[in-house]
C-alpha cells in the first residue's frame, strides 16, 4: 500500500526554528523529503497529534526530537496521513481518563474525610493528655495576651474579693480531684462570660459575676470551666481544628469549590465537637457540685438568665455553647437538693461580687 | 459581542513589509466557553482536583490559537506535571506551615499579635512561587519548534518584589510604575526564546507619564465607585500596551495598538454578571433562612441560631455558595482570561521578525514545583 504521491508540508526539526518546506512520502514509514534527500523517517505508529490551530494538522514523533514538528495545511494530505497513522491520539485525554480523574479524586476525598472526622479526633484525644503541661501553658500564654487586648479588661484583685475567689476555686478543685496548676482571674469586662484557656488559665468576666444571684451559680460556672481544663478541651480543639484545616485547606486550597467545602465541613464538625465537650464539662460541673453537697441547678438558672434576657444581643455564651436548651434541661431535671454547707459565707460572697470595685 | 471572528487564513495578503509580523487569535469563543463550563463542572465533582486539567486545557486552547506571523504557538505542559508539582509543593509546605505556627505562637507570647509580620514571609514566598510558575509555563511554550526558557533566581525576584511593594505602599502607588518596570526588566532579561535573549526596554517613567491622571482620578472615585471600572480598565489597557512595546527578543521588537478603552467593556460585563449572581445568592440564602427558621424564632439571632443547627439548611447554604463561586469562576475565565487575551494578542504587531528566522533550540525544561507552590498559595495566573 505504498504511495509515491508527494505531499507538501512544513518541517521543524526541533534543533532550530527554521521552517523547511518538505514533501511527504508515504511508504513503509512517513519519509520527510527536502529537495531529493529524505531527511527523516517517522514510523507511522510513533506519530502523534500535537496541539495546533484547527486548520493545521501538527504532528510530532515519539522517536524523533521532542519538539520536531510536521505541519500539514492541505486538507487532502491531512486525511491521507491520518489514515496511515493509527496511533495519532494515543495517550490523549479520552472519556475514560476523565472518569479516572473523577474516581481518584473522590477516593482522595473519602480518605481525607475519614482522616478528618475519625483520625484527627482520635489523635487529639490521645495526644492532649500526654502533651507536657509546659507546652500547654506556652500556648495559653500566647492566647492570654490577645484575651487581655480583646476584652480590654484589667485583672480585678481587691484583697478581700481575691481571698474569697481563691477559696472558692480551691474548694472546687478539691471536689473535682484536680491536681494541675490553675490560674483563675476575674476580669473587669462587662460581657457576661467565662472561659478557660490552655494550660489551666480560667477567666471569669465581671459581667457574669454581677448577673449571678448566688455563689452556687458562679461555682457552677467555674466548675464547668474547670471541667474544660481537666479534659484538656482547648488543646484537643487546637489539635483538631489545626489538623483538619491544615489537611483539608492545603489539599483543596483553591478559590473555587474547596474553600466553601472546608467552611461547611469545619462549622458542622466544630459544632458537633464542641457540643460533646460542653456536655462533658457540664457533667464534670454537676459532679463537683454534688460532691460539695450543692445542687447543680443554679448553673442552669444563670444560663437561662444570661441567654434568655440577652438573646437579641448575640451573647457569647449562646454562640460558643450550642444546644443550651438541652443543657438547661439536663441541669434543671437534676433534682438533687443541696445538703452541704454554703460554699462561701455571705460576707465572702459580698466581697467576691465587689472584687472589681475600686479599692477604698 | 464580537463573535464574527475571521480566521487568519482567510485574510487578504497584507501589503506590509515582510519584516513585520502580525499576531492573530483564531480561537472560537463557544469552544472556550464549553471547555471552561465542562471543566468547572468537573472541578465541582472532583472537589477541585480537576483544576490541573482545566488549566492545562485552557492554556492549550489559548496557545495553539495564537499565531505570530501565521505560525501558531503550542503549549506542551501536561496536567500530570501540575499534579505532581502540587503534591511535591504540599510535602515541602507542610513543615513550613508547622514552623510558621510554632514561631507565631512564640511571637504571640512576647507581644499580642506580634505574629502578623510572619505573613510577610508568605508574601515573599508567593512572589517566589509566581516567578517559578512563570518559568514553568515559559518552558512549555513552543513556537516554530523551539521553546522559550528562563533563568534567574526566584528568591532574588521575591526580594525585589517585596521591597518594591513596600515602596509602592509607602508612596500610595506613585512608585508602582517603576516597580513594574524594574520587575519586568528582571523577568524579561532572564527570558529567552531558544538562542534569542530577551530584555525589557520600557521605563517606569514612560508608564508613569501615561497613567498619572488615572491615579489622580482614582482617589475621588473611591467615594462614588461608578468610575472605578473605567479607570481600572483604562489602566490595564495602558499597562498591557506599555508592557508589550517594552519587550525585545534579540532584534525583534513588539508594538501594541490597544486603545485605552479596549478592556473597559469586559470589566463592566464581569460586574454585571457579579451583581446578578449576588442577587441570586441572596435570594437563595434568604429562602433557606426563611424555611429553616420556620416556627418559634423571633429575633434575627434566634433565626441564625436555628439555621446553624439545621444540617440540610447548612448544606443548602454551602451548595448555593459553591455553585455561585464556580459560576463566577467561569465568567472571570471567559471575560478576563480569554477575551482580554484575544484583545491584547490581536493588538500586537511584531517588528523585524526576520531576526528570529534562524534561532537555535536551547534551554531545559523545569518542573512544575513552582506552579504547585503558587497553587497552594492561591496565586496562580491562568
Summarize the structure.
The complex is a heterodimer of chains A (about 350) and B (about 375). Chain A has 2 domains: about 5-85, Roll (PH-domain like), CATH 2.30.29; about 110-355, no CATH class.
Rg of chain A from C-alpha positions?
37 Å
Q: Sheet with the most strands of chain A?
A: 7 strands, antiparallel
Helix-strand string of chain B? EHHEEEHHEEHHEEHHEEHHHEH
Strand order of the largest sheet of chain A: 4-3-2-1-7-6-5
Give the SSE order of chain A as H and E letters.
EEEEEEEHHHEHEEEHHHHHHHH
Describe what this molecule looks like in 3D:
The complex is a heterodimer of chains A (360) and B (382). Chain A is α+β, with helices and mostly antiparallel strands and 360 residues long. Chain A folds into 2 domains: 6-84, PH-domain like; 112-353, no CATH class. Chain A contains 12 helices and 11 strands. Chain A has helices spanning 75-84, 95-130, 133-150, 159-176, 206-211, 215-230, 233-251, 257-291, 297-309, 316-320, 324-333, 346-353, and strands at 6-12, 20-26, 30-34, 37-42, 47-50, 57-61, 69-72, 155-156, 183-187, 194-197, 201-205. Chain A has a 7-stranded antiparallel beta sheet, covered by helices on one side. In chain A, strands 8-9-11-10 form a 4-stranded mixed beta sheet. In chain A, helix 4 (159-176) crosses helix 6 (215-230), helix 6 (215-230) packs across helix 8 (257-291) and helix 9 packs antiparallel against helix 11. The longest helix of chain A has 36 residues, at 95-130. With 382 residues, chain B is an alpha+beta fold. Chain B contains 12 helices and 11 strands. Chain B has helices at residues 29-45, 51-64, 79-110, 118-139, 154-170, 176-189, 204-224, 228-246, 264-292, 300-308, 311-346, 369-376; strands at 21-25, 66-68, 71-72, 74-75, 141-143, 146-150, 191-193, 196-200, 247-249, 252-256, 348-351. Chain B has an 11-stranded antiparallel beta sheet. In chain B, strand 5 and strand 6 (146-150) form a beta hairpin. In chain B, helix 1 (29-45) runs antiparallel to helix 2 (51-64) and helix 8 crosses helix 9. Chains A and B meet through helix 2, helix 3, helix 7 and helix 8 of A and helix 1, helix 2, strand 3, strand 4 and helix 3 of B.
Amino acid at each position: 500500500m505504498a504511495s509515491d504521491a508527494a505531499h507538501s508540508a512544513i518541517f521543524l526539526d526541533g534543533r532550530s526554528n527554521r521552517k523547511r518546506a518538505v514533501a511527504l512520502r508515504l511508504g513503509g514509514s512517513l519519509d520527510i523529503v527536502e529537495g531529493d534527500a529524505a531527511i527523516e523517517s517517522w514510523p507511522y505508529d510513533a506519530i502523534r497529534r500535537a496541539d495546533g490551530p484547527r486548520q493545521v494538522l501538527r504532528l510530532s514523533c515519539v522517536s524523533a526530537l521532542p519538539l520536531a514538528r510536521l505541519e500539514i495545511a492541505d486538507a487532502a494530505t491531512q486525511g491521507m496521513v491520518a489514515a496511515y497513522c493509527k496511533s495519532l491520539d494515543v495517550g490523549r485525554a479520552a472519556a475514560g481518563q476523565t472518569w479516572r480523574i473523577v474516581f481518584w479524586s473522590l477516593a482522595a476525598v473519602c480518605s481525607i474525610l475519614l482522616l478528618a472526622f475519625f483520625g484527627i479526633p482520635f489523635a487529639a484525644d490521645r495526644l492532649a493528655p500526654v502533651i507536657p503541661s509546659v507546652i500547654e501553658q506556652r500556648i495559653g500564654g500566647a492566647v492570654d495576651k490577645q484575651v487581655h487586648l480583646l476584652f480590654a479588661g484589667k485583672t480585678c484583685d481587691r484583697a478581700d474579693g481575691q481571698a474569697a475567689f481563691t477559696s472558692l476555686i480551691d474548694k472546687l478543685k478539691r471536689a473535682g480531684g484536680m491536681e494541675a496548676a490553675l490560674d483563675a482571674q476575674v476580669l473587669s469586662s462587662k460581657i457576661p462570660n467565662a472561659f478557660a484557656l490552655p494550660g489551666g488559665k480560667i477567666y471569669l468576666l465581671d459581667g457574669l459575676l454581677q448577673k449571678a444571684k448566688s455563689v452556687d451559680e458562679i461555682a457552677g460556672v467555674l466548675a464547668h470551666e474547670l471541667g474544660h481544663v481537666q479534659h484538656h478541651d482547648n488543646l484537643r480543639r487546637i489539635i483538631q481544628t489545626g489538623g483538619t484545616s491544615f489537611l483539608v485547606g492545603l489539599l483543596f486550597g483553591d478559590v473555587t469549590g474547596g474553600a466553601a467545602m472546608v467552611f461547611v465541613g469545619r462549622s458542622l464538625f466544630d459544632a458537633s465537637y464542641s457540643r460533646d465537650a460542653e456536655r462533658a464539662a457540664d457533667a464534670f460541673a454537676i459532679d463537683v457540685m454534688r460532691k460539695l453537697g450543692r445542687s447543680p441547678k443554679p448553673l442552669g438558672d444563670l444560663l437561662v438568665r444570661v441567654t434568655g434576657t440577652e438573646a437579641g444581643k448575640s451573647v457569647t455564651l449562646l454562640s460558643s455553647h450550642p444546644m443550651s436548651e438541652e443543657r438547661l434541661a439536663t441541669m434543671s431535671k437534676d433534682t438533687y437538693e443541696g445538703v452541704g454547707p454554703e460554699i462561701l459565707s455571705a460576707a465572702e460572697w459580698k466581697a467576691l461580687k465587689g472584687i472589681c470595685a475600686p479599692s477604698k | 459581542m464580537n463573535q464574527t471572528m475571521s480566521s487568519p487564513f482567510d485574510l487578504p495578503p497584507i501589503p506590509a513589509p515582510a519584516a513585520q509580523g502580525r499576531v492573530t487569535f483564531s480561537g472560537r469563543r463557544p469552544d472556550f466557553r464549553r471547555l471552561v463550563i465542562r471543566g468547572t463542572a468537573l472541578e465541582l465533582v472532583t472537589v477541585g482536583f480537576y483544576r490541573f486539567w482545566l488549566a492545562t486545557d485552557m492554556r492549550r486552547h489559548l496557545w495553539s490559537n495564537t499565531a505570530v506571523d501565521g505560525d501558531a504557538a503550542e503549549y506542551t505542559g501536561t496536567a500530570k506535571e501540575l499534579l505532581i508539582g502540587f503534591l511535591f509543593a504540599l510535602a515541602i509546605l507542610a513543615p513550613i506551615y508547622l514552623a510558621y505556627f510554632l514561631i507565631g505562637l512564640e511571637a504571640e507570647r512576647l507581644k499580642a499579635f506580634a505574629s502578623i509580620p510572619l505573613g510577610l514571609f508568605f508574601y515573599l514566598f508567593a512572589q517566589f512561587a509566581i516567578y517559578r510558575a512563570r518559568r514553568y509555563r515559559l518552558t512549555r511554550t513552543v513556537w516554530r519548534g523551539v521553546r522559550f526558557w528562563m533563568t534567574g533566581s526566584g528568591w532574588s525576584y521575591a526580594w525585589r518584589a517585596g521591597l518594591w511593594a513596600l515602596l509602592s505602599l509607602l508612596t500610595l502607588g506613585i512608585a508602582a510604575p517603576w516597580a513594574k518596570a524594574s520587575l519586568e526588566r528582571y523577568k524579561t532579561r532572564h527570558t529567552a526564546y531558544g538562542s534569542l535573549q530577551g530584555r525589557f526596554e520600557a521605563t517606569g517613567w514612560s508608564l508613569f507619564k501615561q497613567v498619572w491622571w488615572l491615579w489622580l482620578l482614582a482617589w475621588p472615585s473611591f467615594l462614588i465607585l461608578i468610575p472605578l471600572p473605567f479607570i481600572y480598565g483604562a489602566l490595564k489597557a495602558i499597562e498591557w500596551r506599555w508592557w508589550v512595546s517594552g519587550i525585545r527578543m534579540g532584534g525583534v521588537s513588539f508594538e501594541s495598538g490597544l486603545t485605552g478603552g479596549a478592556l473597559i467593556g469586559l470589566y463592566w460585563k464581569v460586574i454585571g454578571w457579579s451583581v446578578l449572581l449576588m442577587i441570586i445568592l441572596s435570594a437563595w440564602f434568604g429562602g433557606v433562612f426563611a424555611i429553616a427558621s420556620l416556627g418559634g424564632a423571633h429575633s434575627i439571632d434566634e433565626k441564625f441560631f436555628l439555621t446553624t443547627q439545621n444540617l440540610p439548611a447548612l448544606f443548602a447554604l454551602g451548595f448555593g455558595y459553591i455553585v455561585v463561586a464556580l459560576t463566577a469562576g467561569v465568567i472571570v475565565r471567559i471575560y478576563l482570561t480569554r477575551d482580554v487575551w484575544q484583545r491584547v494578542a490581536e493588538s500586537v504587531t511584531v517588528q523585524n521578525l526576520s531576526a528570529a528566522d534562524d534561532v537555535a533550540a536551547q534551554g531545559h525544561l523545569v518542573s512544575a514545583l513552582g506552579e504547585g507552590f503558587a497553587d497552594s498559595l492561591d496565586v496562580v495566573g491562568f
